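re: ur question from yesterday

yeah so i grabbed the chain u mentioned. its 371 aa long if i counted rite. heres the sequnce exactly as i have it in my notes:
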Amino acid sequence: MNKPVTHDDLHIAHAAAAPAAAPKSGLRKKLFAGLAGAVVLAGAGFSAYQGVVASKHAVTDNAYVEAQTAQVTALTSGPVAEVPVVDAQAVRKGDVLVVLDSADRRLELQQAEAALAQAERQVRGYQATDTALDGQAGARKADLARACAELARVSTEYDRRQPLAAGGAISGEELTSAKTALDSARAVVAQAEGSLRAAEGERAANLVRISGVSLEQNPEVTAARFRVDQARVALERTVVRAPVDGIVTKRTVQVGQMVQPGTLMLTVVPVQQAYVMANFKEGQLAKVRAGQSVELESDLYGKDVVYHGRVVGFSGGTGAATAVVPAQNATGNWIKVVQRLPVRIALDPKELQAHPLNVGLSMKADIDISR
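ran it thru and got these structure tokens back, copy pasting raw so excuse formatting
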């Protein structure tokens, strides 16, 4: 049979429980105190880290490997005869990448060489003609001299007969004949002078083609030689060679394809000349300067490989400013967005050779801004 619980019983129970509750309350206070201390220590540690370490470094993982890729385009027209390289193949500067059919270019070169030979013969003809024209001009001078001498003679005869005709010593018919001879001599002199001027003019015109320059420097020969050089260059361009050391990428050309000047055939990526473009927030760049040292890690190799580089320079504008469609911040519903500025970082060639990187790989960059 259950005994009823009285007021005295409850008082006794509370008195028994009080000593057990007191230790729990003390433990709770100690835990809160410990938590508060941990928060204070964490804050102090963070402040110390910011002051000692973080304030001397600018770090971002928004960084990528880039390189000045070489786009290989056709410099002359023609069908593709051979493509001895494939994508991902390593090539050295000067290696053959594409060979075009050279039949048309060879014919053009032969035609230009024939035109050059013809121009040289023509100029030599001008030189030979000058000698002939010089002799012809000399002959015209001699003719003029004879004509002048004859004019002087008949003029003297006429002057001698004219007084005699006035006194009746000679007939009028004889004086008329002397006058006719004088007029004829004058006409011969005029004709000789005209022939001499024509010969001298013809020689002067011929001298314009050859005067003051040798055969090699003659404008006609020079122009013909230029066409030969041009045809020879076009023939050489049927063999397309690698402009730099690198890796073949984006090969689009195929054997039998007809290409025109400017047709993109493939791309060569110079991986040994790779660099890093790190996009830092604008608030991180106050102390970043060209020449500062940088440590970099690649997602490809992880933390086991650390690259050492230096800051080369800064981009002329942020990514938003240089975008195809730049942001228009003058609108009324503008929201400020923290911008990032690309920073170019040069890598150590020896480290690149030991651990090659490919364009587009992600990197983590840590710039030492303590100096």
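noticed a couple things. The mean pLDDT is 83. also The helical segments are 7-52, 103-167, 172-210, 219-236, 349-354.
anyway ttyl
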